[in-house]
Design brief:
single chain, mainly alpha, 63% helix, 0% strand
Length: 79
Amino acid sequence: MAPSPFRTPPEPTWRKPVGVIGIILYIIIYALLIAALADWLQGLPRLIELLVYAVAGIAWIAPLKPFLLWMNTGLWRVK
């Protein structure tokens, strides 16, 4: 008999709902911190202001890599 092409999904864990809530809270806090910088950034030249917002718009994802790994595997680092 040929093996089934369909895989049985793993049992759901508590890490995924907790992780989603954690990510939402992280994004809210990060956005509030960047918004708090808006008054200070307003006096800078437009090019520097654009650069700061561009870096902040990309940099928010870097701290989430270990968190996403934990959500999926239960480990903080790849062995």
